[in-house]
Amino acid sequence: MIRVLLADDHPVVREGIRGMLAAEPDLDVVGDASSGPEALARVAELSPDVVLMDLRMPGGDGVAATERIATDHPGTHVLVLTTYDTDSDILRAVEAGATGYLLKDTPRAELAEAVRATARGETVLTGRLAGRIVTGMRHRSAPALSQRETEVLRLAADGLTNTAIGHALHISPTTVKTHLMRVYEKLGVGDRTSAVSRALRQGLLPDA
Predict the structure, then answer these.
(1) CA distances from 94 to 1, 37, 44, 115, 196 (A)
(2) pTM over 0.90
(3) Within 10 Å of residue 26's Cβ, how many Cβ atoms?
(4) pLDDT in tens, 141-171
(5) Radius of gyration of the chain, Cα coordinates, nearest whole angstrom
(6) I need a surface site. Which of 35, 169, 174, 179 has the fewest CB within 10 A?
């Protein structure tokens, strides 16, 4: 039995997806969430195999939640199910660690098969999205961090505070903060946890 969590801010959508999957004997919807933070809490509580994740939700979007799930709960796979199909949305979700990306107009049978494939850890993309992912990835390379930015981020990955990092590198905490802000901008994230997670996945902290 594949355990599924639904994350979408629209109750009607959640009930509709629940009804679609109820006809599948091997799929069990074990819970739902209406925001990214709530989805994280429910994943920690229920340990689902697959999260069907909407991208844009009030109170915390699906991309940030996907990134945290990929880092903190590697046994849970995220399948994005959304109405948004812009290249930037697709790339953000995949880079955050989503196993697959489907649109909400996907037929029931295709959705069920996608959930099964996601549970196996297989990449799930419709044909028209797959080509755009490949093209987008070819044109997007990992950002280059300076030596100092890499040193700061590596120490941040070790759990050091800005003050402790400053002592280790003989720079001020303010300078540490400046370096971290530049790292956040380059990686397209908003906090050190996401920065470390993304840098590790992109091979920017090979020795961390």
Answers:
(1) 26, 19, 21, 16, 17
(2) no
(3) 11
(4) 567 788 899 999 999 999 999 999 999 999 9
(5) 19
(6) 174
Other beta carbons less than 10 A from residue 193's beta carbon: 16
Dig out the tokens for 167 from the structure.
Answer: 């002592």
Ramachandran bin of 24, using left for φ above 0, alpha for ψ from -120 to 50, beta for the remaining angles: beta
Q: Where does residue 59 fall: left (phi above 0), alpha (psi -120 to 50 degrees), or beta otherwise?
A: left
Please choose, from the candidates 9, 69, 61, 52, the residue with its C-alpha nearest in 3D space to the C-alpha of residue 34.
Answer: 9
Tokens of 193: 């946890």
Q: 188 in the Ramachandran plot: left (φ > 0), alpha (ψ -120 to 50) or beta?
A: left
